[in-house]
Design a protein that fits this description.
The chain is α+β, with helices and mostly antiparallel strands and about 90 residues long. It contains three helices and three strands. InterPro entries: Transketo_C/PFOR_II, Transketolase-like_C_2, Transketolase_fam.
Length: about 90
């Protein structure tokens, strides 16, 4: 993600770091590298079309994953998408 911010020429970019003790998500590095440039990537969830699609960025992604797991315990399918580059979809 930092490479995308550094290479941004047409829009302002920033790197926002946290001091929070956040969990490390198990997302393959090649998935992140390939899809972060597109603005978003799947971090958790159903391969088929889910009933719920949870979009989050930054420290909220791990909370969205927990919410998706709670939904699954209720028999609902969910997918979590990390969207570090919201402007790509505007």
């Amino acid at each position: 993600a930092w490479e995308v911010a550094v290479e941004a020429e047409s829009t302002p970019a920033s790197l926002v770091l946290t001091g929070q003790n956040l969990p490390v998500l198990d997302v393959p590095e090649d998935v992140v590298e390939a899809d972060v440039r597109n603005g978003a990537y799947t971090v958790y969830g159903a391969a088929a079309t889910p009933e719920f699609l949870l979009l989050a960025s930054g420290s909220e992604v791990s909370l969205a994953v927990e919410a998706a797991k709670d939904l699954e315990q209720q028999g609902k399918s969910a997918r979590v998408v990390s969207m570090p580059h919201w402007h790509a979809f505007e």
